[in-house]
Amino acid sequence: MKLADLAAAGRTPELPLQLELADAAGPAQLTVQRWLRVLPGQRYVGQALWRGRPVLAKLLVGSKAARHFQRELQGARLLAEQQLTTPLLLADGLREGEGGWLLFEYLDGAESLWDAWHAVEGEPLLSDAQQTVLGEALAAIANMHSKGLWQSDLHLDNLMRHNGQLYIIDGGGVEAQEPGKPLSRDKVLSNLGVFFAQLPVELTPFVEELSVHYLLANGEHALPLEALLKETEKVRKWRLRDYLRKIGRDCSLFAAKVSAFGLQVVVREEEQALQSLLNNLDVFTEQGQVYKAGASATVSRVQLQGRDLIIKRYNIKGVLHWLKRFWRPSRAWHSWVEGHRLELLGIATPRQLAVVERRWFWLRSRAYLITDYCYGQDIIDRFQPYADNDGGELPPEAELVALDHLFAALLRERISHGDFKGRNLFWDERLARWSLIDLDAMQHHQSASGFARAYARDRARFLRNWPADSALYQLLDQRLPLAPVAGEPV
Known about the structure:
Blueprint: E1 17-23, E2 26-39, E3 43-50, E4 53-60, H1 65-81, E5 89-95, E6 99-105, E7 111-112, H2 113-120, H3 128-146, E8 149-151, E9 159-162, E10 165-168, E11 174-176, H4 185-197, H5 207-217, H6 225-246, E12 254-259, E13 262-267, H7 271-279, H8 281-287, E14 289-293, E15 297-304, E16 307-314, H9 319-325, H10 331-345, E17 352-360, E18 363-372, H11 379-382, H12 384-387, H13 397-413, E19 415-416, E20 425-428, E21 433-436, E22 443-444, H14 448-463, H15 471-479
Antiparallel strand pairs: 1-2, 2-3, 3-4, 4-6, 5-6, 7-9, 8-11, 9-10, 12-13, 13-17, 14-15, 15-16, 16-18, 17-18, 19-22, 20-21
Helix pairs in contact: 2-3, 3-5, 4-6
């Protein structure tokens, strides 16, 4: 295959793929064995063989190939020139009208700090293991900043552990102010805001403590806490807006098909595994373990290749019901959006896998939401042993604290659930957190007064799960925060 042919090869070019490239030693064949990241028609990153050695190949095609090639090449050279630990660039080239390539040494067995973080994120906040991961990242960022560089697309996946060293990868996002001279304070604060915005918001109180790891490696500037938190919050809001714009379009995260006769959006990495279910949604729904068979919704637990999933089908009861529903987003779509909002905000909910709307010339009809199954007990069953006693035995403190954290997060983000009955709140043993389900009526509020009213209703509905004269009710009533007073910050 020629390099230019990749521009029309789609998202999954057939492997192994062989390309004839060249370097200073002359032409040679590149054999791509595995795709690592694909942006169709623009960028293909894969593990490959080149002159008998494993390499990481970045292949750039399309109308913007030359510009992207120069950016990648400049970033890789900046990192190397400033003696920062980064994979060695072995070969590069650009062919007019075809595209460009950069071949780096392949870090076999390397682990990204993102994977390292996932392994410890369930531990108590700022545990030793978490401090180790974040401390490594902040030290690497500080080293870049001390050399006048920063990574505009800063995230933990661009920092790789390999043989006891931390490598900075992805030169395409590397920019320079004055190479060799420390970055200005404004740039430092802006770039650190990008980093901290990706961490769980519960870590915000520890930002000052974590910043010590940065200052130990680069003490050129003081880091005023208020300014750093302001930058972090600004980026966090931008990331949420940007992410929610992606959940309905075809991109690296989601596979989307939208037309006048239907909508289907699937988490891309799940698309192949879910295909048989998506092709037979009604059959799976009706043959599964039906939890609810209402006129407006059917909820069914199904098994797919040994994996438990939930299908929630939103039915149309009749012509009058259709007239109320066809012109607005379906409840499945609303739940899809709010589920992804919760995920990015770090509020536990079963993972949203796919959403489907049946349409006729854009007029909506039946819709479906597919999520992971939520294991564990709901809070009614979980707290049943403590509901009827006289207060002598209380629920585990860890579960009460997790409940405190959930309500605090809903307050902080101005989110109301809309149907806060106990059957919609499950204990997740793995995460040691409460997980919200049934997001049909969930709402993110712009108005403080509107949120205060909705939160008060949520809190009251939640407490009604137990008799008002019970010790459990009184304990929870004392612990759970009241609705904010109008005019006061949430």
